Amino acid sequence: MFGQAQALRLVMRAFGAVERARDVSHGLKDKFCHGLAVAQDEGHIPSAYFQPFFVGCMAMMAASAFFFLSMSSFDNKWKTSILVSGLITFIAAVHYWYMRDYWASNATSPTFFRYVDWILTVPLMCVEFYLILKAAGATKKLMWRMIGLSVIMLVTGYLGEAVYTSGAQPAIWGLVSGLAYFAIVYDIYMGEAKKLAVAAGGAVEDAHNTLVKFVVIGWAIYPIGYMAGTAGWYGEAGQIFGMNLSLDVIYNIGDAINKIGFGLVVYNLAVQSK
Predict the structure, then answer these.
(1) What would the CATH number be for the domain defined by 47-272?
(2) Of 1, 32, 208, 215, which sees the most CB atoms within 10 A?
């Protein structure tokens, strides 16, 4: 009896702690929403910049739900690819939530959170190429080479955008990042990955060619955002050749196109292979 009574007291204490935590979280949420509304009314946080983070978060979360829920309709051959697609958009959705809050609190670009998102999701996008071409003979050496190049591309990009931001340094780090990007493009456009896709033929080649377009065209959006966020020969930070551009809006558009689009291409290939 003593043990049951003690257990009952512990359960009641746990419920009490949960209730107190809920009350505190509601209070913090109310204060945050009130502060956000005041800041927006006073013009400190332009809704034109704040809203894309919210929309991006919802879009990524919806895509994740779609990919995760559709996994059961495919055989084991494609489940991993669909899972990776869902992980890419889910990781992005979580970071967009934090980026939204960061922007609301500081009214500055959440550069650190964005690069943390990319350092996790971009290598996973490279893994997608490997998973698609695995049946055609793709090796892990190809996968790790693409992952390594993507990490170099992102780390050097972050150094130029957030660490070494004076003089010609952003342009130099941006050039190094661009070279790593073009190495990835070479691999998938005319290198080993391309040869494997041609050998596989059919739906695999079609899917590979579509993903290549995302990398060549879709990923090209990011250098525009990089230029908009740094000062260089192209103009001051926030401007490119005299045009006022927001790097966050550009990056958000790029993420939506590339992350969700990548997943949909893989999903379509899985459907065609049924």
Answers:
(1) 1.20.1070.10
(2) 208
Beta bridge partners of 232: 235
Write the pLDDT tens digit of every residue in 76-126. 888 999 999 999 999 999 999 989 888 888 878 889 999 999 999 999 999
Nearest to 147 by CA among 175, 174, 189, 119: 119
Tokens of 153: 């591309």
User: In 88-116, which positions are buried (b, 16+ CB within 10 angstroms) versus exposed (e)?
Assistant: bbbbbbbbbbbbbebbbeeeebbbebbbb
4 pLDDT band (50/70/90 cuts)? very low
CA distance 121 to 84: 9
pLDDT at 31 over 60: no
State how far the Cα of 258 lies from the Cα of 24, in Å rounded to an integer: 38
- CA–CA separation, 186 and 264 (whole Å): 23
Residue linked to tokens 């419920």: 15
